[in-house]
Amino acid sequence: MKAFVFSLALLATPAAAAPRTETAVLAGGCFWGMEAVFEHVKGVTDVVSGFAGGSGKDANYDSVSSEQTGHAEAVRITYNPSQVSYPQLLQVFFAVAHDPTEVNRQGPDVGPSYRSAIFPQSPRQAQMAKTFIARLNASHVYKKPIVTKIESGGFYMAEAYHQDFARKHPNHPYILVNDRPKVASLKARYPNLFKA
């Protein structure tokens, strides 16, 4: 993959007068890895693992694992837009956190609950996501087409045992193989965005 760098005004450092916190909801495979990556982004104050795209009645791991609920494993990211912008979060999402060319899978995980999706929290986020995907496609950074969808739907927090999983279980085989390399990639590729 070619270097993933945009010199766009869209990725400029956000204005200091921005609101104190905003939220983003992103889905890109197992939420353990997504959470682990975004917890290491400067300006991110909280990351919660959960489900998005389906209804509240079946927003639990057992139901979502049936691949019949319409949910995707997702993370809700709370961030300070005076420190990190929504497009910068999208850059991390596309370049580090997952492979946006994989349909209904990421690594060893297969099914629509592992799809690549963005759940905008405002019309402005929806427009920025559309613009970002269009520019990413035009840049031909990836050999295959971007399959990330922009979707609507609420976010539902996953069970407590899923929260902070990578931090609580750093030596779990799944984390070692699939998620620790993503955090290392974030640090290597975007040192200005990385926090320990």
TrEMBL record:
Top-level EC class: oxidoreductase
Keywords: Oxidoreductase, Signal
InterPro entries for the chain: Met_Sox_Rdtase_MsrA_dom, Met_Sox_Rdtase_MsrA_sf
Catalysed reaction equations from the record: [thioredoxin]-disulfide + L-methionine + H2O = L-methionine (S)-S-oxide + [thioredoxin]-dithiol; L-methionyl-[protein] + [thioredoxin]-disulfide + H2O = L-methionyl-(S)-S-oxide-[protein] + [thioredoxin]-dithiol
UniProt keyword Signal present: yes
Segments forming domain Peptide methionine sulphoxide reductase MsrA: 23-174
Signal sequence coordinates: 1-17
Catalytic-site annotation from UniProt: C30
EC number in record: 1.8.4.11
One Pfam family matching this protein: PMSR
Gene3D superfamilies: Peptide methionine sulphoxide reductase MsrA
Family: Belongs to the MsrA Met sulfoxide reductase family.
Function, as annotated: Has an important function as a repair enzyme for proteins that have been inactivated by oxidation. Catalyzes the reversible oxidation-reduction of methionine sulfoxide in proteins to methionine.
Alphabetical list of PANTHER family matching this protein: PEPTIDE METHIONINE SULFOXIDE REDUCTASE (PTHR43774), PEPTIDE METHIONINE SULFOXIDE REDUCTASE MSRA 2 (PTHR43774:SF1)
Record's protein name: Peptide methionine sulfoxide reductase MsrA
Species whose genome carries this gene: Sphingomonas limnosediminicola
